[in-house]
């Protein structure tokens, strides 16, 4: 769908944004846009073996991938993210699949597009490479950008309406991904960082503050950005509140369903049940989130319940 329709949906109207601390113009829906929830756990519930590359299922088990996207659309998602979080060429190389980057990402986008209802959107999902930039690691910014460019180009070729860069813990890597996506396509590019809460505020693993990330994304003129993963819904609301102090652009909030824990069967579970998570959705809105979804520990039922809350609070 045209980029203008997506930007209209989230309320990004050039020249009509408010001042930092205010949320600017509302989107066409009159409520926050709703994204999907966790994808990896949904794959595992359908049989993805531990240690298997999730992106391979885009060609090995396409029906399962389509089914997950369909379930999120059916429960209320306005947009879903493709099964390509670990689909950069550098990340896929860990599985010996670096040379299949374009194939797996194009397939990821095509599967989501195939079940996309009219008026909904598909975001081409880009996650971190799992590697570090120099001097902490061995890679250069040029190498990261080349890797992300191949991925972004394939996602757009497969039909993605926008690029969603997620769960970045190094602002430099997020900017590499954003520049790469911009270099190969004109679709909107969104980005979210993952923060830890500290006594001094919200910082990424690499020490980037929420305010620094906002400033960098505004300089790059990204139409929407925010935070996802790591934080609970209540903590993420506070993180969004901090980011809102520095921008009037649409902010994205995708919290975890609490913290991961091991149950007695040695299975990973999340500490926040659906009632507690959904109770925090109005707090995310009040804090200034324009785009809301779920991250680790959430599922289509979380999205269904969040959709009901957002519809009930529609202005």
Descriptive labels:
TIM Barrel, globular, eight-stranded parallel sheet, two-stranded antiparallel ribbon, alpha/beta, 12 strands, 315 residues
Q: Order of strands in the sheet with the most strands?
A: 1-12-9-8-5-4-3-2
What structural class do the secondary elements suggest? alpha/beta
Task: Tell me, rounded to a whole number, the average pLDDT.
Answer: 93
User: Between the first and last Cα atoms, what is the distance in angstroms?
Assistant: 26 Å
What is the fourth-level CATH superfamily? Homocysteine-binding-like domain
Percentage beta strand: 5-15%
* Poorly predicted regions: 13-18
Order of helices and strands: HEHHHEHHEHEHEEEHEHEEEHHEH
Bin the helical content: 40-55%
CATH architecture: Alpha-Beta Barrel
Which fold name is given in CATH as the topology? TIM Barrel
Number of helical segments with 4 or more residues: 13
Overall outline? globular
The main pleated sheet reads as: 8 strands, parallel
Topology, number of strands: 12
The top level CATH class name: Alpha Beta
* Oligomeric nature of the chains: single chain
Number of domains: 1
From the alpha carbons, calculate the radius of gyration and give it in angstroms: 18 Å
């Amino acid at each position: 769908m045209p980029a203008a329709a997506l930007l209209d949906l989230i309320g990004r109207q050039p020249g009509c944004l408010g001042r930092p601390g205010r949320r600017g113009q509302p989107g066409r829906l009159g409520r926050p846009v709703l994204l999907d929830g966790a994808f990896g756990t949904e794959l595992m519930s359908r049989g993805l073996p531990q240690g298997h590359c999730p992106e391979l299922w885009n060609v090995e088990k396409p029906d399962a991938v389509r089914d997950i996207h369909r379930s999120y659309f059916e429960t209320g998602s306005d947009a879903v993210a493709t099964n390509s979080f670990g689909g950069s060429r550098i990340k896929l190389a860990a599985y010996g699949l670096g040379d299949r980057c374009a194939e797996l990402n194009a397939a990821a986008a095509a599967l989501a597009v195939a079940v996309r209802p009219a008026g909904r959107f598909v975001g081409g999902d880009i996650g971190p490479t799992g590697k570090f930039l120099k001097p902490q690691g061995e890679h250069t910014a040029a190498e990261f950008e080349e890797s992300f460019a191949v991925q972004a180009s394939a996602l757009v070729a497969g039909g993605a309406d926008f690029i969603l860069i997620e769960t970045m813990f190094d602002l430099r890597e997020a900017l590499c991904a954003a520049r790469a996506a911009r270099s190969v396509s004109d679709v909107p590019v969104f980005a979210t960082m993952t923060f830890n809460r500290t006594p001094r505020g919200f910082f990424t693993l690499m020490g980037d503050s929420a305010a620094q990330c906002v400033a960098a994304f505004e300089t790059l003129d990204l139409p929407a950005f925010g935070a996802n993963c790591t934080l609970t819904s209540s903590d993420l609301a506070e993180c969004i509140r901090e980011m809102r102090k520095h921008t009037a652009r649409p902010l994205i909030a995708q919290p975890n369903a609490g913290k991961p824990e091991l149950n007695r069967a040695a299975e990973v579970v999340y500490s926040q049940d659906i009632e507690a998570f959904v109770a925090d959705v109005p707090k995310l809105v009040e804090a200034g989130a324009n785009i809301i979804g779920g991250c680790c520990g959430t599922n289509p039922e979380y999205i269904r319940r969040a959709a009901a809350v957002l519809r009930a609070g529609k202005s």
